Amino acid sequence: RQVSRNRVANGIRLAQQVGVATVYGAIYSFTDSQSSIQDRLGLLQMVAIGSFVQPLAAAIRTFPKEKSIVSSDRSKHLYNVFPYFLSKVATELPVTLALSCVFSGILYPSVRLQPDWTKFKNFLSVSALHSMASQSLGLLMSSVASSSDAAIAMMPPVIVACNLFNGFVVTEESLSFPFNWLPRLSVIRWAWEGLMVNEFQGLKFVTDDTKRICVATGQEALARISSIFEKSTIKGVLLAQGGILAACYWHTYFALCRTNLRFATMDAPSFIEDEGTPRGNNSPVPGQATVTK
To answer: What letter would DSSP give residue 285?
Structure first.
């Protein structure tokens, strides 16, 4: 029911995905030239960041308000956390997947990425799972935040951290203990790595450019960015994204279980000896004026 009520918001999200994919298609048109290497790198990084922010912001914008209603219903013993959370995930995942598939379906052919059906399916899979993991992270942040404002305040540092450890700004090899594990927690890192490996593997470039050091294959281009990309696979990326998704759902569920509304306790009525009538803490004192509504 909540999803059907958000038709306007979902329509805006759909228009945003179509518009961004159309703009990218108008800007980029990849070839086998050396300059297309940098263009591919920049576009796939923008795709990973944009597909992370949009589902994250959507979850943070709506879930804190919904959480307070759910807590109130739970205090009345109307339902438990598990059926609510299961229905929440089941109703919102199709919307997230549909938006991701629309964006990928428009973007992939319009920018002329590799015309291969298997690579297109891998692109869809990585992008869809990336959107799901981003949304689950938004649910986790909202479940531990005390209010909607607190959840919104948490969003900028999380975005900056995930973007900082995306595998390109700071490479994993350059980080020493205990910070070398942080890139593995970045949702953006796994999406960008999967999109890069999927696109660059099997590519061959023209090496007749005399103005720069030429790269003949996509594997060489990946090796120049990070040695981790040489060993990376689409299966490993999907497993990592699935692990982040499951961990966020797991912690969100237990955070919701620990969320309870607290109510003020009411004192038992006391009796006024000279009047013989009950009077609580907020009852008027005899002789005090009262207001009748």
So the answer is: P
Phi, psi of 20 (to 5 degrees): -65, -45
Residue 284 corresponds to which tokens in the numbers above? 């008027």
Taking CA atoms, 204 is separated from 57, 199, 207, in Å, by 38, 11, 9
Rg over CA atoms, the chain: 26
Q: What are phi and psi of 292, to 5 degrees?
A: -100, 125
- DSSP for 189-210, please give it: HHHHHHHHHHHHTT-B-----T
d(CA 198, CA 44): 11
Residues 6+ apart with CB under 8 A from 110: 21, 22, 24, 25, 26
Give the SS3 label for residue 204. Answer: strand
* Cα–Cα distance, 18 to 110 (Å, whole number): 12
User: Comparing C-alpha atoms, which of 190, 187, 18 is closest to residue 105?
Assistant: 18
pLDDT tens-digit readout, 214-233: 888 888 888 888 777 778 88
In this prediction the pTM is 0.81
3-state secondary structure of 271: strand
Say whether the peptide bond before residue 178 is cis (omega within 30 degrees of 0). Answer: yes
Phi, psi of 278 (to 5 degrees): -70, 145
Whether 126 and 40 have beta carbons less than 8 Å apart is answered as: no
Q: If you ran DSSP here, which 8-state letter would residue 180 be given?
A: T
Q: Does the structure show a pLDDT above 50 at 291?
A: no
First to last CA, the chain: 38
Burial of 291 (0-12, 13-18, 19+ CB in 10 A): exposed
